[in-house]
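Review box. Two proteins, two foldings.
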Amino acid sequence: MIRILGINAAILVVGLIIAELIFGSWLFGPSWGTMNIPRDIHRVFDVSGLYNGPKEAVYSRDRWGLRGQYANPGAIDILTIGGSTTDQRFIGDGETWQDYLAHDLGGKVVVNAGIDGQSTFGHLRAFDRWLSQIPGLKPRYVLAYIGVNDAHLEGQQQWDDMASPSLRRRVERYITNHSALVQVVTTIQGTLKARKAHVVHGGSEYARGPWIAGTPPDPDKVVDAALLGAYEQRVEALIARIRAMGAEAVIVTQSRSDYRVTEAGKPLGRGTSPDSLNFGSWAMQTAFNRRAMAACARAGAVCLDLGGGLTFEDGDFYDWVHTTPAGNRRIAAWLAPRLRAVLQ
């Protein structure tokens, strides 16, 4: 009996090894290495305490780590890159600004390649370490929704490197990225028993009005010129990298919830009198946004200053930078007419 059990166990082990070699990517296929790009996941987050709407948000990413619907990687009209405001982990499938933008553009294929926590450092690395691993990826346009994370770079390095600083976590990620068995188990767990998690993004209450005009500082005098210059160079490099893959670049700036801008681009602060206003966040973000637009204009790319042109409303954010489904509709409605002519 023991001998039979041993033989059966040996056959099982050999079978698993053969299956891993055939169906895994240890020897063939894309080499994901230790990248912490979420792939083949289907998770359900409890967002009932975050914003009005459905209690749960379904977050899915496919085998290539992309979010959204597309026939094949070569049939994508717009590939979006950015940080958590692009990824939108706690916004359900069908309610991201990419989903609304695809609808507003008449069914154009808009796919989400955002990575939580990344700045332009990470976006540049993503082309060589991740996006180049996706067979046949050929978007017509790559839309970079950038600025917020670059204005707060401290502590972002592990996300920009797309690998954990922990050796143990890197080993775990390497096995996950190459093992067919682990991928099957993960997929089954995600499908049959959706992981429910409370949101960590919305740790602080976002600002609400009243919003009034005041006298803001000069943005160029608020941020170190060297930091702004380096950011401008990264935006230029990002445009060049997008074009190197055969796509055209669309650079879109960002905003925050702790100020508002009018249609004319004038800032509004929260307070009861002009003397009580604090425009620090607006000045810092605007300084980075201006440099992004300057780099974009020099390169002749598509430049959309959403951060200086879109007026958000209360209820559009669930924390300082992350938008709700209502905010996502507003983003899509602002982008669509400006992109429609470009996509003809």
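Next protein.
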Amino acid sequence: MEKISIVGVDLAKNIFQVHGATADGRPVFSKKVRRSKLLSLLAGIPTCTVAMEACASSHHWGREIGKLGHTVKMIPPIYVKPYVKRQKNDANDAEAIAEAASRPTMRFVTVKSAEKQASGMALRTRDLLVRQKTQTINALRGHLAEYGLVAPSGTVHLNRLQAAISDPETELPAAVIDHAQLLLDHIEMLACKIDKLGAELRAGARQDPAAKRLMTIPGIGPITAMALTALSPDPSTFRKGRDFAAWTGLTPKQFSSGGKERIGPTSKMGQRDLRRLLIIGAASVVRWAIRRGADQGGWLGQMLARKPRMLVTVALANKMARTAWALMTKNENYKNPALA
């Protein structure tokens, strides 16, 4: 058998497709393997590069395959698609993964540790509960609006609805009162779980040196700091802060051709949870600057004087992402430019 240089693995739930190729790209084997047999197959192959798409369960397999001595490379699926030849099937996908991983200019995803993934799970679980809480509040407001009970949006106005359904003189049907109380109890239960997860994340941020440094940046609190450390790849992956901001989707799209540069809206690619948190943090800084008055000689004051508020918010989020990359790379605290 010819020497295998790279193995492409098309991940699945139970049946995986494995494609082996030489250093010059010639195929050596292509076979289907059951989940329980994958590691034993790779253990029998001399040390080489094993490539796969960065998708569900890929970090788990990356850690396990790395223990066998292989070099693991994970590729964003969007970068694999151009290498698929004609028909879409598992064999062609595995071959395309091996072909893409052999490109010298390909961009790879770093395999995450189990601890880093655990932090990311806590953040995503909290985000899921927040969405469920919002959905339940909107459902309650919608149902009670059908009976003439209207309250503004937001958690702070729930007591108005609670008082209305608890009023002994209410004309609401008994079934409506029971179902509304059920939704209110569900909202309270979700709020308790959200608070518990938030407390865990804040405690983790206080113990993490990188998160503590990130929290020195205006607009970045413990939740965003933990998200930056848990969801972003190794800072050394990026050459400069602009590359990190581009990874978060906070840089403009380009539609340039023929020497004419055309810049569009932000790309919104990459990690959307991180992008959302950065924009929320930037919005709080902008809101505070408008209320208290921003320094007209500073960057934020000049931007607010001549640009729309939302544009300034996204631009500030971009600036925060670059600053966060610099702090994670240099292991330093934030230094206010106005005081430097």
